[in-house]
Structures are given as structure tokens and as C-alpha cells.
Amino acid sequence: MAINENWEIYDNELSVSDNQTIESILTVGNGYFGMRGAYEDDAISEKSTTHGAYINGFYETAPITYGEQAHGYPSERQSMISLPDASHISLQLDGIPVDHNHGEITDNIRDLSMKTGLMTHKFVWTGKLSGKKIQVSFRRIVSHVRKHIFAIQMTVKPVNFKRGILSIKSTIDSDNLSAHSSDDPRVSEINTDEIMKHARQINTQNDQIIGLSFTTQRSDLSAMVGAIHNLDGKVSNNQKIWQSQILIDQQPVRMEKFACYFDTRESHGESVSETVVAELEKSKEAGFDALRKEQANYMRLFWHDSDIHIATNYHDDLQMASRFALFQLLQSVGKDGKRGISAKGLSSTGYDGHYFWDTEIYIIPFFTMTQPQIAKSLLTNRYNQLSHATEHAMDLGYRGALFPWRTINGEESSAYFPASTAAVHINADIMFALQQYYYFTDDEHFMRQYGLKMLVEASRFYLSYGSWDKEKGFVINTVTGPDEYTALVNNNSYTNLMVKNQLEFLTTSFDLSQVARFGVTEKEWQQFEMAAKQMFIPREDNLIGQDDSFLSKPKLDLKTMDKSKFPLLMHYHPLFLYQHQVLKQADLILAMALMPYRFTNEQQKINYEYYEPLTTHDSSLSRCAYAIAASRLPDQDAFDQMLQSSFKTDLTDSQNNTANGIHTASMGGIWLVILLGLAHVQATENKLILDPIMPPSWNAYVVCIQYHGSQIKLSVSERGSHVTLMHGLPIKVQLNGEIVQF
Amino acid sequence: MAINENWEIYDNELSVSDNQTIESILTVGNGYFGMRGAYEDDAISEKSTTHGAYINGFYETAPITYGEQAHGYPSERQSMISLPDASHISLQLDGIPVDHNHGEITDNIRDLSMKTGLMTHKFVWTGKLSGKKIQVSFRRIVSHVRKHIFAIQMTVKPVNFKRGILSIKSTIDSDNLSAHSSDDPRVSEINTDEIMKHARQINTQNDQIIGLSFTTQRSDLSAMVGAIHNLDGKVSNNQKIWQSQILIDQQPVRMEKFACYFDTRESHGESVSETVVAELEKSKEAGFDALRKEQANYMRLFWHDSDIHIATNYHDDLQMASRFALFQLLQSVGKDGKRGISAKGLSSTGYDGHYFWDTEIYIIPFFTMTQPQIAKSLLTNRYNQLSHATEHAMDLGYRGALFPWRTINGEESSAYFPASTAAVHINADIMFALQQYYYFTDDEHFMRQYGLKMLVEASRFYLSYGSWDKEKGFVINTVTGPDEYTALVNNNSYTNLMVKNQLEFLTTSFDLSQVARFGVTEKEWQQFEMAAKQMFIPREDNLIGQDDSFLSKPKLDLKTMDKSKFPLLMHYHPLFLYQHQVLKQADLILAMALMPYRFTNEQQKINYEYYEPLTTHDSSLSRCAYAIAASRLPDQDAFDQMLQSSFKTDLTDSQNNTANGIHTASMGGIWLVILLGLAHVQATENKLILDPIMPPSWNAYVVCIQYHGSQIKLSVSERGSHVTLMHGLPIKVQLNGEIVQF
Known about the structure:
Chains A, B: Belongs to the glycosyl hydrolase 65 family. With about 750 residues, the first copy, chain A, is of the alpha+beta class. Chain A has 2 domains: about 25-300, Distorted Sandwich (Beta-galactosidase, Chain A, domain 5); about 305-725, Glycosyltransferase (Alpha/alpha barrel), CATH 1.50.10.10. The first copy, chain A, contains 19 helices and 31 strands. A 9-stranded antiparallel beta sheet of chain A has the order 1-9-10-11-12-19-16-15-14, with helices on one face. In chain A, strands 8-7-13-18-17 form a 5-stranded antiparallel beta sheet, with no helix packed on it. The first copy, chain A, is globular, with a radius of gyration of 26 Å. At the A-B interface, α14 of A face α14 of B.
């Protein structure tokens, strides 16, 4: 992959060629809504395509059908749905369709500029009969500045002729919507056709506006999609089509289309259609170029705070992959405290558009360290769903709050509890992110107003879910850890370590007086302390068991297994996987990656060497954790290899499913690898600890970190590591063991 | 419940009054097919009714929809379906319907004679306008002698008038069929309407025959139901209705109806409709009274071999309950080696008409000890399904054969593997029944031809499912034991003890030379021996853990729990139940009941006292096991109480769901309680061991047992126990520790 200055992704330079994979990669979005990188007119190519436009958290529900039902199972699932697509524009030249049936398409290239947040699509069309050649370009943005606005600027330039009639047909397409991508067996069919059948026209004075409003049938959510053009045209087909004709007279012609995606939960009493029309008119007034500049400016600030510079001895993949990761995280993440970040971002309805623990463990760290206000908004979204978590715990028979394994609206949406609800580490994961947020930002206000209540309720849950064993101490039985190839075990060490961490956070960073208002008594407080102190971790000397019985199971020899049997979950019954020492993904090693200070060097080495050969990395969440853990081991070759592979997911389609959406957790994992695996960053309440290392065959890297409102830049090269204060008050940094004020 | 000589069940004397419960209780069947005890004409009562006619093992399939799918899950479920009902007969007197709308119904009583296998229904009807009174009686049998024949004899007697016209309408009703009873959440909807829509008339020369033939849509099974009457009449409505008129002239009038249920898998090349017609004509020729006598004779022989006499100080419930149990087992059990015995017998489609482990552990013992040819036919049915079991094991990733948890055709039909496929004790349960069958019958031929192959394949499965632990020995991880309130644990002690028993049976009752033809090598044989010897059983001194971690979980205090929370599975999430020390049903205690010789007296006492307070008995399989175990304990009051409660299931509707079918396992449990709990019978290869006890407040009991082809009678009274040889060669009996030849 050759990359223009490492800021641009050209589809013809990607190592993948499947059009739907490329469409996922070229998604543009702003965290509120997103658009896949499909062509404006499908007919310019014969490749198969999946259009998609999604509002983060805009979902329909469907009843869950169980093979066998039991008490307390979720009754319905939520699914983010595909919305009417405003990117469609098709052309005719002198009445002939500008497509691959009626002409030759050449120089057809899409390009995503990560620097400016602009996607460009260009091609040249030569009419079969007329021989007339035009160069067409589309530039599109989903504005980061204007939450609801998507804009396209089209330019058509005559190449070998002087005059012609260009007919433009611009639509909002609500055909062929689907609720999910086909490779995910865990999702239900949602009938979006039914929703669209009842869509209504937008009621507006402006007869140039096309669009429609619609309401989901079961979840009762409404949204409106409208569009306006900077030329006059004819609106038809129930306001879904806009058409216009322009005379090409030697000069290029240009058209701009502005679309507005507006979920009615965004309105505060005012008329939705008036708001949409006003937004559209404002954008049209400003013009595409103004929006593009706003966008470039926004991105400049983003990169200023967030960019990672990497210089390596090998190819430039890593620089590119890390920028792509951060860029897509920004595009995917909800920033208003009312939505999260889904497993596939806003690039598809894969995994139903659900928020998982990926958010807190894999993704929030990037925002915590670079854009803490976004980390805050993600934690606020969890806080806003706390009442559902409290009900969920009660439904199951426990006290406190248990956050849902997968959800949009805060209710558990999972249909197989052994690999979801039983993964009760979700609470500790969220609290880990809260702790990190607090330590990095010192945001006392947030803790007082939101954080502590979550922390207390999440801790209460564990006191009632866990129990006291006279020999072992505090045990947490019947859980599933991160590794989905093991389920319903006792004392998953990741879970227990994370819960221990959570309870220590509560009881050492705060005191009883701060949480008494949540009904915490002295007795309960002591239990929190005691459970943290006596938390049981299964061990055999320095080898830590993934759970109480893991080490006594037979091992699968992954090296000798038939390659066609991977990923194992597609070829083996869960019982077989549960019965063996085999991991889908990092489990104990993830705890080690997140909290290396809880393990001795000897333990890190022994456990890494034990678990790595048992891990299939069938999950995209796995390699980054192993890379981080490997960074502290003597074997630098293994580290280098794991490091490189952890950067590869979407741009190389290494999981073979990027067509069904990007992998946001894996993208967050790239940040983790650099910060936890290379910079070896750790925030405590009063200082920032950095123990940076230089990986084999790297020359240098530079990364910015915010701590307590200040920003520092860490530069690491062969000559050593260097910290500079970029803005804010001086902060205390422990660099390579030495405490320095910067 | 007052009972006529303890042989008759009158519906007006039952302690239950719900009509559908009574219909279940009054089911008549012959193991091939069965009919619920519904009225011939629903309109004589306003109570709600559920008609039902079922052929054992005649099923339709439906796809299973999973909340989340995974590799190796069964894709479809089988469901025994309700068939057209030939019991319908309605009357008119002088053109007025003989029902509760047009007259007064009095003395309406149904009666099931267990002695003769005859069900009678009588009532008196007095016309509202005419004041004419008739006494109507129906007698029905499902013939044990004629596998396919159901017969009804109707008598109508004028009480207060001389002359009248009686119109008879007799139908085969295929309306309102359903595939399942409503209280079972685990079954799918099967559209039997669709099946009946395509039903065809029977092609026959005899124009008096009504009936239809039909084919299931997915499983592609065909059956024919036909009927004939001993009077001439008019056939209409596509051969589904037969009508006739008779002059009542002072004397009673009589009509007989013969129906034939014929599954085409029963035919061997000959024309099905010709067979059905021939069967019908033969029965009609013989006449109802001849069929009734055949039936009474069959039942006489059955009771001769099987009856239990019980004399107690209290009410006669136990005598009645035990006879009812044995009677219904006979009616429910497949006897031709091609079908098993379903959880609800032939009284409903509850549990989809599936065969479970109940068959081998709860039911076969009765047949093994009294009608070994039936035990053999049940084991033969398993043998016939061995190839499915081999495939099933392979699909899961293991060697050998794993029998299905629930099935009709031999394929796993369960949709929630943690409580089904993971219950791998199913193999050992079947092998336990095989061992018992072999020890009681000495049927070497069966072992050679069928038994050994099953035993080897079932044992191979365990060698690959289990594994060797350097400290514990042979362990069997990730299993579910009998107790459904615990799942996916390691070393369930019931499972491990039963597998140990199976492997010991194989390696001590046989030698390598007998199984070498199944590819067993010396090495494998040694592994069988070693696994048996080194089988791990979790223990804390004399207390045996239900599994590796059971004893360390918190206990549920069942005594203080709200009564409205039972059965717990209806009110708690599985996670909550799995997390606690709480049992739905006997688990370790069942192993103790089946193999008391593997436990010391001290162990029996300690474990009973530990587990009983933790057991909800939410399953009808539970109390009989506890009663048997209690029989060996010093506390005779507890024993007496458990003993009595173990007899109560269907006649008192103690589970509140007999309306949805009888509980065959619980019925088998009554036999187990008497034989294993009181007679303390144990068969070894060369002797029969009896250590009979007399329970508190019992005066005497008498029971017959077959052993090695001979039959003995054991009489136990306050004066001691007495054995008599009833027929066959003398056998060696160890009675109360003393070996005697009888």
C-alpha cells in the first residue's frame, strides 16, 4: 500500500480489492451519523455494493426467539438500522446514462483524506456511441462541525467536447435497506421495508427540498432525512427525487447537495421539519467549500492533539494504520453523552450497532488521553443507562447494577447468556475506564456527579454476585471472562483482577464519607475493602490459571491443527472449546496488558509463554493485548511480530470481514499498543508515569498525552525519550523512573 | 380418593377436578398408540377439553431458531404430533342433540379399569323438552393384543320411554390438532393444520369405512386412521363422518366402532390401506366383547407378573398409585424395538413426545424385573439409533458415541446445550440399564449382538471427553449432571460415578477378546480400566461434592424463601441458580439410590442430610431417589414422609401440570422406590441380592421379580420376608445376607 504522505487512502492502492470492504474503509461519519463509501451511482461499476447510512443509536427492536426460554432472558433485541441514503446522484449526458453500460469508465478512484475529513470520488467516462469524455468528481463530507449535515460537491468537466446537456438525478434512496450484515449470525431480521412503507413526506414551504420522515414500528423512534441542492430542479416521486439539467458549455459545471440526518430525540420542542429545513438552508447558504474548510480546521485541531508519528525501518503501514484507526474512532464515537461507539462504528449494522465492553477497555483510553471530553461523554452515556443496569441486576437476583453486555439503549440485548450476561467483568471494565479518566483528568466534578454512583452500584453487584470461600477468600463463581472459548467458570482471573482493581479504586481514591449518600454503610465499606484484599486469584506458583479449572483441562495443539478449522468457533461445538485449554482472545494477558504493575517480570514471562501458544486470536481484540504484554518480555522478535500484526485489521482485511464493517475495538487497540506497549504510560492520581521503550526496527515515535488539563508531547527515538509541555500548567512526570516537573 | 378394590379409577372420586387433568389420567394406550380420556362428545359437558390421539414416535420436525447460533447446534427439533381422533361419537334422540344444552346430564362418570384395560364412560340424559331419559354408556379399549386397534362399544338404554329414534354421528376428527401442550416453553409450533389440509381419503372397496391418510411435511412420515362400525350407515364429508339411525323400541341399542391407527413404517411392502381395512374388518368380525376379553386376558398376565401388593396402616393411596403407575407404563412403552417411552407417555405431546434418560434410569428397571422382553425392546431402540449417536459425538469433536439428550428418531433435538448435550451422563445411564438388563436376564445373546457395541462406543466417548489430571486422576470436565439448577461444571459426581460403573461393567463382566471386533486394542482396554480405577470424585471427607466447586458456593436457604418463588426456574435467571448450592432434583443422591453399595453408611447419612435441604424437588424425578436413599438412614420419619410423597404425582396432580400429560419417569420411580428402597434388590451376574425392609406404618408388601428367566415372589410383612419361586429353574438369592437357593 503506497500512501500519499500517509494521510490519504486511495482505493486503488489498498491491498484489498473487494468493493464492499473498501466501502467500509472509506466510511465518513461524525459519531452522530455515518455513510459508507459507496459510489454515488452504483451503475458506474459492476461490482457489488452495500450502501449504508446510519444514525448512531437509532434502532428498531425485534423479539428474540430462543430455542429454549428461561426466566430473566432479554425478550427483545435492539438493532441499529440502515437509513435512507442521501448520497445517490446519477448523471446522463445528452440523455445517455453515465454508467459502465453506456460508456467506458476509467481512472475511477476514491480517496479518503484523513487530514481534512474529505472523501473524493473521481472518474472519467467516455460515451460508447458519442465518444464524449467527461471527468466527474464528487467530494463528500459528514461534517464534524454540523452534527446533522452530509454534503456532496459534484464537478463535471468536459474533456473532449464543448457542449452537452447534463441531466442530474439526485435521490434519497430508501430501497433495499437492511438491518444487518449477513456474516453475523447473532442478529435478527428487522423489517425496515415496513418502516419505509409508512414514511411520510417532509412538510415544508421549500418546494426544492426532498426527503422523508419515518418512525420505527416497535421502538417508536422517528427520524427525518432531507436534502437540498444549490441548483433549481424538479422534485418528484413523493419528494424522493430531485432532477435538473445543466448546459455544459466548455467549462466545468458544479452542483452541491446538502443532506440532513435528524433523529427527533435531538429536538427540544421545536418543529423537526423546520429545524431540518433551517439546517439545510444554512448549509446551502454557506456552500460546500465553507463546510469543507470548517471540516479541515476541525481535523487540524484533532490531529494536533491526537496524531502519532511513527518512523520505522520497514514499510509505512504502521503510520498509516494508526492514523486510520484514530480517524475512524473519531468518526464513530458519540460525543453528546447520549450514545456510545459501536463495534463496527458507523460503517455497518454488524453486531446490531451495539456497544460492548470494547468501548471502555479498547477505545476510551485513546479519548481519555487526547480528547477527554469525548471519554467523558461515553462515560456519561453509561451513567444515563444506570437505571437499566440496576434493574438488570435485580432481575437476575443481585444487588447493585450490572451493565449490559451488548446494548444500544441500556437494556441487555444478548440472546446467549453464557457468553454475555455471564461476562460480568463488564462492570469492572467500565470502572477501569472511569478510573483512568479520573486519574488522567482529575475531573472531581464528574466523579461527584456521575462517577461515584456508578462505582458504588457496580461494586455492590460484585459483593452480591461473589461470595466468601473459607479457604480461597473472595470468589466470583459462574462467570465468563473475555475469552469466549471458555464459559461459566469460577474465578476467571481477568475478572477477579479487574474487580479487585475496581474495589481498590473505590476504597483508596475515595472514602466512606463521599459515598454515604448512596446508602453505603461502614459495614458495606469494609466488605468492599475486604473483598479487594482477599480477592482470590487461581495460581500455580507464578503461573496464573485463567480460572479455577483451566489449567487442568487438556490443551489443544493449535500448531498441528488443520488450518481450515479456524476460526474454531465456526468448526467446533462450544462444549468442545469449553473443554479445552484454548483461547479465542487475550484473557489473563489482557489484565497483564492493562495492569502490568500487578505482575512480576517473572510472572509476565511465564504466563505470556504459557497462554500465547493456546490463543487462536480468532477475535480482533486479541493481538493488541498480546503485543502490549510482549513489550515487557526479553524476546524482542516475538514482540516485534505481535506488534506488527496488532496493527493489521481493516486496511488489510485480516479478519476477512471488514466488508461487514470496520473493527473499532481493534483500532483502539492500536492506540493501546503504542501507549501501553511502547510509551508504557500509567496515570496515577498525582503523576504521570512513562517508561518508554523503542521497539525493534523502529526509529522514532511521537505522541501527545493530556494529563490533568495539560498536554505533553513524548518523543522517543534511538537517542532517548523526551517530554515537552505543549500547553497548560506544568505536570509531574515520572520518566524512566525519575520524577520530573514539565 | 375412594377406590373400588384399588383397580378402578373413577373420575368423580379423584382428588383433582380439572377435566384436562382427568383426561390425561384416563388415557388408554398400548405403547404403539394412545388416546386421551376425553368425552366422545364434548358437548355433554361445558368443561374445557383436550382431545388427543398419538402414535408413539410419529413426529414432525421444525427448524430450531436460536437467539444465537453456534457450530454443532441441532438444526431441527422433532415433535410427536396429535393425530385425527377416532373417539368422537355424538347422539341425537328424536332429532334433539344429546348434550348439556338440550337436556340434563346426570350420573356422568368415567372409569378406568386397570385390571381389564377398559375405560368406561356412562351418563344419563334427560331431554329438556321431551323429558325422555336415556342411559348412555361407552366402553373403550386400545388393544394390547391388536397393535393398531382402538374400539368403542356404545349402549343406549331407554329409561322412561318406549320408542324413539336415535341418530348416531361418528367421526374421525382432524380439527384443532396441536403439536404441543401449552405449559412447555421448550417446544415449537408444528402446523398440523397444514398436514391435515393435504390429507387424502382412504382408497378402499368398503364404502362403510371412514378415515384418512396423511403425510407430514418435513419429516415425510405417513399414517392412516380408519374406522368401521358394526351397523350400516351413511359416509360423508370426504369419509370423515359416518351416520346412522336406530329405532329404540323398549330395549337398549348397541353400536360398536373399531378404529385403526397405522403408521406406514409398520407396513412391509403390503398395501397400507388394504392392511388397515383387513384389520378393521377382522376386529369388527370378532366384535367388541372378544377384543375386551383378549384385553382382560392380556392384563391378567401382566398383573400376574407385575402387580405389587401393598398393605399399609393409612389410606390406600399407595396401592392405587403404584398400580396406576405400572398400568400407565405398560400403556406408554414401545414394545417393538422401534420406539421408546416418552416423558408424557401417550397422554399428550408435552416435552414433544421425546425420549429422555428417564427411560433408562427411571423406567426400564420395572420392565427389566418383570417384563424383560420390553426392557430389551427399549434397549434395542437405542441400539437402532447408535449410528446417530456416533455422528453426534463426531460432530461435537469426540470419539465413540454420545446418545442424544432428547429425541424421537435418535438425533439430538435439544435447543439449549448446557442443560442437554452437556448432560453426557446419558451414555452411562443407558449403559446402567443395559448392565441391569444383563445381570437380571443373563441375556448373553443380546449383549453379543447389540449390547457390547453400544457399551464400547459409549465408553470410547468418555475416554475422549474426559481427561487425565495429574493430581485428580481421570476427570470429566464441562458437564451438566442430573440437577438442572447447575450446569457446565467439572466432575459432576453422579456422572463420574456412573461412568466409573459403566467402565467397570465393561472391563469386569467382559474381556478384551469379546470386544476386539469393535477395534478395541489392548491399550484402549487398559485406558478403560485405568479411567474406571482412577475416576475422580470430589470429596471433603465423607461429604461428596456435587461437582468440583459446588460445595464452595453460597447456599440458598429454601426454608425461608417466599413460597411464591417456586419452582425456582420460573422466577430466577439460570445464572443465579447456577451460582448457588440449590438442586432442582436428586443428583449425587440419585447415584446413591442406584448404587448404594458404593457408599458407606456414614457417607449415605452425611450426604443425604447435606443435600436434601438444598433440593427443591421442582422435578418429578427427585423425590423417589430421595426416598430410596432415605430408606437406609436411621431417621424413619423422614423416610416415611419422603416415601409417601414419592408416590404422589399424577393422581393428585402434585406438579400442577398433569393436564399436560402424565409423568412416566415418576411412575417408574414408584417401582424403584419399592424395589430399591424397600426390597433393596440388587442383581449381580450370578445372584440376586435382597435386603428387604418394612417401612414405618406399612404392614406388608408383595412383589414379583424375574431373574435369569425364573420368577420369584418376595413377600415382606411384619413377620419377616419370604421368597417363593413362581416359575422357572431355581435361582441363587442372597436374602438378608444369607445365600439360599430357591
